[in-house]
């Protein structure tokens, strides 16, 4: 998405237009998916989604819309503001400190405990982040851009912690559609207040906007949920650490960006730390019941929130 965003900027797309079209188009496509695939509206068996009173369901829907209207809209605005000022590869590395922040916040809130392995991973991630920033000697580094990138990571951390309260109460695609709708609503309201958005850019701009909305948002989200169902949350989370590596590689090929050796070493530390932080025990083996039949397996870990 960072690479597509840079190419959209080069095609004359303003950031406000990029954000509104991205979320508006993504929301429309997700609702179309739900309309054509009614089965995706239902939560998976075992989720805390069925049999709720209408008032509770309405509260969950309101929280989902709020996640998009406040959390996701703010995070995306900070992300694309930072993208105007700095390289896509460096932005991806700074943004990907959010799993470390989520772990620290979960420990402080009492939702998780800090094991020696996780403590070592946090130290390594902090050192890696420092290397990324200290090694940024090229023109791609911008202090304000780095600050906006960290703010985006912090905002996304809060978004994940709040979304943990509703992620098991709605079907994943329905939750994603509500989040996108909330974000599109906020950005549309901001456009009305500030005098509208500029949509006069050419076909190249629309092409990269469509790529952001379809490839980097809708297809990526649906593919993540499909993979999550087949691999489990730990494997999906570990595989997602490949995201900034792909961004850096594509930014080098498409935009001519390059990371210094110090930044590459720091990025490797951050990514390896994220992988270690996501390694958790899988399922507890079924225990034999007195009847001789195996009892149900207990999943010891929650599914991660979707981005």
TrEMBL record:
Can you tell me where the transmembrane regions are? 20-40, 60-82, 88-109, 121-138, 144-162, 174-193, 205-228, 235-255, 261-279
Of which family is this protein a member? Belongs to the EamA transporter family.
Q: How does it sit in the membrane?
A: Multi-pass membrane protein
Q: SUPFAM superfamilies from the xrefs? A: Multidrug resistance efflux transporter EmrE (SSF103481)
Protein's UniProt keywords contain Signal: no
Q: What is this protein called?
A: DMT family transporter
Q: Specify where the region named Disordered lies, as residue ranges.
A: 283-307
**Compartments (UniProt record):** Cell membrane
InterPro entries (alphabetical): Diverse_Substrate_Transporter, EamA_dom, EmrE-like
Q: Does the keyword Mitochondrion apply?
A: no
Feature: compositional bias, Basic and acidic residues: 285-301
What Pfam families does the record point to? Answer: EamA (PF00892)
Q: What are the EamA domain coordinates in residue numbering?
A: 2-133, 144-277
Q: Per UniProt, which keywords does this protein have?
A: Cell membrane, Membrane, Transmembrane, Transmembrane helix
């Amino acid at each position: 998405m960072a690479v597509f965003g840079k190419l959209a900027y080069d095609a004359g797309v303003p950031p406000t237009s990029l954000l509104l079209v991205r979320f508006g188009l993504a929301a429309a496509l997700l609702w179309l998916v739900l309309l054509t695939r009614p089965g995706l509206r239902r939560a998976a068996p075992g989720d805390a989604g069925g049999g709720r009173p209408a008032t509770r369901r309405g509260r969950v829907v309101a929280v989902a819309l709020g996640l998009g209207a406040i959390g996701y809209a703010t995070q995306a605005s900070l992300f694309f503001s930072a993208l105007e000022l700095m390289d896509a590869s460096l932005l991806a590395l700074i943004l990907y400190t959010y799993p470390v922040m989520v772990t620290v916040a979960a420990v402080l809130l009492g939702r998780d405990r800090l094991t020696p392995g996780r403590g070592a991973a946090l130290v390594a991630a902090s050192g890696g982040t420092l290397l990324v920033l200290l090694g940024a000697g090229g023109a791609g580094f911008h202090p304000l851009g780095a600050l906006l990138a960290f703010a985006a990571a912090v905002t996304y951390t809060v978004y994940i912690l709040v979304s943990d309260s509703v992620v098991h109460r709605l079907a994943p695609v329905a939750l994603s559609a509500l989040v996108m709708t909330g974000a599109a609503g906020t950005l549309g309201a901001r456009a009305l207040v500030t005098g509208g958005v500029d949509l006069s850019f050419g076909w190249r701009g629309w092409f990269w906007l469509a790529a952001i909305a379809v490839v980097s948002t809708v297809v990526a989200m649906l593919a993540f949920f499909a993979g999550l169902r087949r691999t489990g949350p730990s494997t999906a989370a570990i595989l997602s650490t490949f995201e900034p590596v792909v961004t850096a590689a594509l930014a080098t090929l498409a935009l001519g960006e390059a990371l210094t050796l110090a930044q590459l070493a720091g990025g490797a530390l951050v990514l390896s730390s994220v992988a270690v932080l996501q390694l958790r025990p899988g399922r507890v083996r079924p225990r034999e019941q007195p009847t001789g039949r195996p009892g149900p397996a207990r999943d010891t870990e929650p599914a991660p929130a979707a981005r």
